[in-house]
Amino acid sequence: KQWYQRRVAITAGAIDEEDQREHMRNQHREALNTRTKNSAAMLVSDSKNLSTTTANLTPPQWIQCDIRKLDVDVIGKFTVIMADPPWDIHMELPYGTMTDDEMRNMGVDKVQDDGFIFLWVTGRAVELARQLLCIWGYDRVDDIIWVKTNQLQRLIRTGRTGHWLNHGKEHCLVGVKGNPKNFNRGLDCDLIVSEVRDTSHKPDEIYGMIERLSPGTRKLELFGREHNTQNNWLTLGNQLDGVHLEW
Fold first, then answer.
1. Are 116 and 213 in contact (CB under 8 A)?
2. Would you give the DSSP letter of residue 212?
3. Tens digits of per-residue pLDDT, 140-159?
4. Buried b vs exposed e over 146-170: b needs ≥16 C-beta within 10 Å?
5. Coil, strand, or helix at residue 166?
6. Higher-confidence residue: 85 or 157?
7. pLDDT digits (tens, 9 = 90+) for 11-44
8. Within 10 A of 77 (CB to CB), how many other CB atoms are there?
């Protein structure tokens, strides 16, 4: 009788353990189904957002001009501005440069109320660039570093610029003005590792970073060339080919 009672107790305990395991398996299946449904919903949402962003793309536009003489009031306002100015870095360069005062007198403050600016700098221009951000009404909030590589994807050790040390990198100062809305925070890091190409040809990765930060918005590039023209961008510069605008 005692043996039988122990057997019944053991069997009951085994049944309880099996019930617990089955209950845990059911919970796991329910959790997995919930995650699957959530993931599917996120994919649908991302697809709709991507379709909306793609639908908002406008073709590249450009104006060949001397930016110093352009009446910027005629081009409207922009959410993002990027500039690669011809800084006077006291070195022989294959293009004309602008004086510090000409930089200060540019009407950048007139083409943006709320948004971001990306300002490429090098050498002695770093301090001047920080002054310009203040003059134009921006708070500097970040600094993107472009680490330059050669065709073998090795670090550049004999840069084209630099008075004391060869420069193997360039900086792009990021400024914010006003109260920009509908932007995406934290999608990219502040480092680009990319191959050096022609003189003053910046890495294409910067356009993807900016589009992810502020998708589908109107953007302006100053001192651009033909290779800089992009969807959603109006490019200004004296090395472009004529005028191409679509309103």
1. yes
2. H
3. 999 999 999 988 888 877 65
4. bebeeeeeeebeeeeeeeeeebbeb
5. coil
6. 85
7. 555 556 666 666 666 666 665 556 545 544 443 4
8. 12
CA distance 109 to 217: 18
Query: What is the SS3 assignment for 219?
Result: strand
| Whole-number Å distance between alpha carbons of 168 and 160 | 9
Question: Could you tell me which residue, 7 or 43, shows the higher pLDDT?
Answer: 7
Residue that has been written with the tokens 């992810």 in this structure:
212
Strand order in the sheet with 219-222: 191-195, 139-149, 169-177, 115-121, 80-83, 219-222, 233-237, 61-64, 243-244
Question: Are 217 and 87 within 8 A, CB to CB?
Answer: no
- Size of the chain in residues: 247
Q: What is the DSSP string of 84-107?
A: ---B--SS--SS--B-HHHHHT--
Written as six digits, the tokens of 8 are 């019944």
Instruction: Name 201's Cβ contacts closer than 8 Å, sequence gap at least 6.
Output: 227
The pair of three-digit structure tokens given for residue 99, joined into one six-digit string: 């004086």
Using only C-alpha atoms, the chain has a radius of gyration, in whole angstroms, of 28
Query: Residues 219-233: what's their mean pLDDT?
Result: 94
Residue 52 vs residues 46, 47, 108, 215: alpha-carbon distances, Å: 10, 9, 30, 10
pLDDT of residue 199: 72
> Looking at per-residue confidence, does 238 or 49 come out higher?
238
Rounded CA gap, 75 and 58, in Å?
A: 15
Name residue 7's amino acid.
R
Task: Match 């919930």 to its residue by tokens.
Answer: 34
CA atoms of 228 and 242, how far apart (whole Å): 15
Contact 238, 225 (CB under 8 A): no
**How many other C-beta atoms are found inside a 10 Å radius of the C-beta of residue 244?**
15
